[in-house]
Design goal:
One of its GO terms (cellular component) is plasma membrane. By secondary structure, this protein is mainly alpha-helical. The chain has a two-stranded antiparallel ribbon with strand order 1-2.
Length: 243
């Protein structure tokens, strides 16, 4: 492939997911796709960075310099992002929010490496949305009484008149779908646009598309990462109430 895993060549526009190889698993044919490969590469990048950061912080100096500055800046900014919407519960969610933020961001900007962003596959974004959905309702049932949950599901009318219950149930079920679809659709649209540019313009698209990569991969990727994490924190904070 001329442009890495993302595109197949100048004469063939390609932004689809393809099988790399297949194997038999208990009599079933299972495919390893480009998404699996790209997720593995993203994970290796993150793990490699984490190992280097861990070794650096093991020898941390009181006055940080060099790579230690980078690591501490990342941690401080991620913690500060969690502090505002989560309040006093923020320390419990530093690790989770920080992890999904880094994974989604690196996945979104992996197009700069010639990869097809893993988040352009709904099979990647849906589990992230479902995990958030589970955390929301785990905290809701842990920190709210059944009476409070019922009143919330019946609002804005009194709990003895549950006319709005079906609509509120649909809105609750829609949370993981809306979260995952928003991230998936925005990243996929950028992937499709860049594939069309490279596929239609061929050798002409050699340097100037870098400006589009800055928007679709860096700017849009960072915005979508922030939106996903901010909505996750807002939903969880609302489920916890004043806990």
């Amino acid at each position: 492939m001329e442009h890495g895993i993302l595109l197949s060549g100048a004469d063939n526009i390609d932004f689809m997911i393809h099988g790399v190889f297949k194997y038999s698993f208990f009599g079933h044919e299972v495919w390893i796709t480009t998404t699996h490969v790209c997720v593995l590469i993203v994970m290796l990048i993150i793990i490699g960075f984490a190992i280097v950061a861990n070794r650096c912080m093991a020898k941390a100096r009181e006055v940080p310099e060099g790579f230690q500055n980078v690591v501490e800046l990342i941690v401080e900014k991620l913690d500060a992002m969690v502090d505002t919407p989560m309040g006093k519960a923020a320390p419990k969610f530093y690790n989770y929010i920080g992890t999904i933020f880094i994974f989604i961001l690196v996945s979104n900007i992996s197009g700069l490496l010639g990869l097809r962003p893993p988040t352009a596959d709904y099979g990647v974004t849906l589990p992230l949305g479902v995990l958030t959905f589970i955390l929301i309702h785990y905290n809701q049932f842990k920190y709210q009484k059944p009476k409070e949950i019922w009143e919330g599901m019946c609002s804005p009318l009194p709990p003895w008149l549950p006319i709005w219950l079906p609509i509120n149930l649909i809105s609750e079920i829609a949370v993981p779908i809306s979260l995952s679809l928003r991230l998936f659709a925005n990243v996929l649209s950028g992937t499709v646009m860049m594939a069309l540019i490279y596929g239609l313009l061929g050798v002409i698209a050699t340097a100037w598309p870098a400006a589009l990569h800055v928007y679709f991969d860096l700017f849009s990727g960072a915005i979508q990462t922030y939106v996903f994490c901010m909505l996750t924190m807002t939903y969880i904070a609302n489920a916890r109430g004043d806990a």
